């Protein structure tokens, strides 16, 4: 079989996968981080719908693999895990939202970090959208406590 002219024979990009944080754990660790870091009060009001959608997708995927989600990890377990592990997402949102909500110009990039600077120089900065940050934190904290209580 001859090689086409438009197929590249040499690598053009390199991707580094960091497996340092890879572990077997509840999916709620990742879901809570995603939901609390990206969701506003509007999305959090529809949280039960989002969780059901996630579980339906999860169930369908397990079914395609020949397993039964209700036997392996029932929806009730997912909700129980949310009460148990969502604190991770809450804490990560509190730490990460300033960087998520900031303008690119407001934060020092890793590339621009000088040898005499610390990592804390990257995360210690003032964001312009303080009202948005406080509103989002309030929404996330309220959702967390409403859900676990």
From TrEMBL:
- Tell me the domain of life: Eukaryota
Name the Pfam families on file: EcKL (PF02958)
Whether Membrane counts among this entry's keywords is: yes
Alphabetical list of InterPro entries matching this protein: EcKL (IPR004119), Kinase-like_dom_sf (IPR011009)
Q: Which UniProt keywords apply?
A: Membrane, Transmembrane, Transmembrane helix
Provide the transmembrane region boundaries: 85-101
Can the keyword Transmembrane be found in this entry's annotation? Answer: yes
What name does UniProt use for this protein? Answer: Uncharacterized protein
Q: Which organism is it from?
A: Rhamnusium bicolor
């Amino acid at each position: 079989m001859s090689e086409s002219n438009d197929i590249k024979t040499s690598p053009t990009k390199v991707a580094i996968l960091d497996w340092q944080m890879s572990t077997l754990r509840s999916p709620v660790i990742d879901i809570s981080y995603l939901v609390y870091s990206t969701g506003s009060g509007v999305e959090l009001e529809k949280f039960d719908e989002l969780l059901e959608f996630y579980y339906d997708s999860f169930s369908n995927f397990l079914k395609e693999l020949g397993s039964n989600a209700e036997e392996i990890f029932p929806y009730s377990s997912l909700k129980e895990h949310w009460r148990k592990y969502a604190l991770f997402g809450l804490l990560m949102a509190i730490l990460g939202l300033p960087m998520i909500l900031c303008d690119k110009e407001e934060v020092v990039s890793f590339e621009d970090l000088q040898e005499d600077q610390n990592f804390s120089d990257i995360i210690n900065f003032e964001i312009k959208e303080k009202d948005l940050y406080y509103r989002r934190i309030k929404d996330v904290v309220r959702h967390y406590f409403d859900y676990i209580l």
